[in-house]
Design goal:
The structure is a homodimer. Chain A is built from 10 helices and 6 strands. Chain A has about 210 residues and is an alpha/beta fold. Chain A folds into 2 domains: about 120 residues, Rossmann fold (3-Layer(aba) Sandwich); about 80 residues, Winged helix-like DNA-binding domain superfamily/Winged helix DNA-binding domain (Arc Repressor Mutant, subunit A). In chain A, strands 2-1-3-4-5-6 form a 6-stranded parallel β-sheet, with helices on both faces. In chain A, α2 packs parallel to α3 and α3 runs parallel beside α4. At the A-B interface, α1 and α10 of A face α1 and α10 of B. The structure holds a DNA duplex (30 and 30 nucleotides).
Chain lengths: ~210, ~210
DNA sequence: ATTCATATCCTTCAAAAGTAGGAGAGAGCA
DNA sequence: TGCTCTCTCCTACTTTTGAAGGATATGAAT
């Protein structure tokens, strides 16, 4: 019997493209589509597909979160992260969340099919570039340290362009404390200034672009 | 005779999806694909399609640059910018480069077809979100004053997270001069800090997200 | 010829950002 | 009970940023 697939992506163009790719192979059957993480989790609960092709960047519930839920609740369903941008943290995040594969959207049709078949039998599949990143990540001692909840909160405000004094007011703590947090953030992210920290936050999607400067 | 289309996107999945969408309509014929801006320009030179569907974020030559070239050299070819959510703030840049339309990738098949037909006859097409952005940009009473070339250059470096000293070194001018430029930039953009100026630059797509912090 | 915009540089000063090195309170864990 | 982590706050200090108010040179426009 064919491998049962769920496609999760917020862009209908991409979903259609994947359908197209996968229609070429008789061993694969696309049994559903979802346009966000929450829908995906629902679908998996009802239908238990063999493999989920998961976009990481989505509204409602992002792909990493959805992957985490699926992998912890439905161990028989494998997840392949499929994304357009190669982002260091996303690779590590996806793997940590339980994804068995990480592919870029520029993957060719037959590579994709191969990856799905591998995933269905529990084998790990990474696109060459992703694998390289992962290697670098593991080797490199300069992988950003994990921020605490409070630090993340401060970073979010910082990344909205707010001054220390404003952040202090907003969180009802002293400006000194904010400075302490900011210093720790800079140290952990290994960047020299709040501006670079803000750019980092935007890059990893901590703040939506809509909120930038308004 | 059908409308002749060129699809430009660096992801084969997306190209395939678009092909799929457009195959539904007999009035539309996809005559080629390109995976970066440089290829796109080449193709337009050889084949002069009626409409180009252009992704904005690509390697080699980005979509805005390619649009600029195409529109200045081949006036009969219309360009529709087609992007994913994250980039939807490059609206102004795309329009300024000469794009006649701006659509998001979550557009449905028939909307896309409608947009292409409109573009082929020279009509402007914007997705609701893009239109909103544009309106806001135009309406905004505090519409940012125009920056000079030098100021834009400084802003670009600033938006890469560089300090005044670094910018001075890079441009071979004194730090004092950089400070003067930065002050003028903040005044013109009506923001209180370099961090907010950097975020503004990202928002309008002055720096590509790839370059952020890397 | 003169005015205007741009770009360069200066000094002086105030505010904001960051660093260094503490220290106490509370939560959770071995 | 210690131990560690997080969050909070402090003083004292340096560096960076940014504002204010100049000055000079160039080139284009009137």
């Amino acid at each position: 019997m064919p491998i049962r697939i769920l496609i999760v992506d917020d862009h209908s163009v991409v979903r259609q493209g994947l359908q197209m790719f996968l229609a070429l192979d008789p061993d694969i059957e696309v049994i559903g589509e979802a346009s966000n993480g929450a829908e995906a989790v629902e679908f998996v609960k009802d239908e238990q597909p063999d493999v989920v092709l998961m976009d990481l960047l989505m509204p409602i519930m992002d792909g990493i979160e959805a992957t985490k839920v699926i992998r912890s609740d439905f161990a028989d369903t494998e997840v392949i992260a499929l994304t357009s941008v190669l982002e260091d943290n996303a690779v590590v995040g996806a793997i940590r969340a339980g994804a068995i594969g990480y592919l870029l959207k520029d993957t060719e049709a037959d590579d994709l099919v191969r990856a799905i078949k591998a995933a269905a039998s529990g084998q790990v599949q990474l696109s060459p570039k992703a694998a390289e990143r992962l290697m670098r990540e593991i080797r490199a001692p300069e992988s950003p340290e994990k921020l605490t909840d409070r630090e993340t909160e401060v970073l979010r405000l910082l990344a909205e362009g707010k001054a220390n004094k404003e952040i202090a007011r907003e969180l009802s703590i002293s400006e000194t404390t904010v400075k302490t947090h900011v210093s720790n953030i800079l140290m952990k992210l290994n960047v020299p200034s709040r501006t670079q920290a803000a750019l980092y936050a935007v890059r990893i999607g901590l703040v939506s672009e809509d909120s930038l400067g308004e």
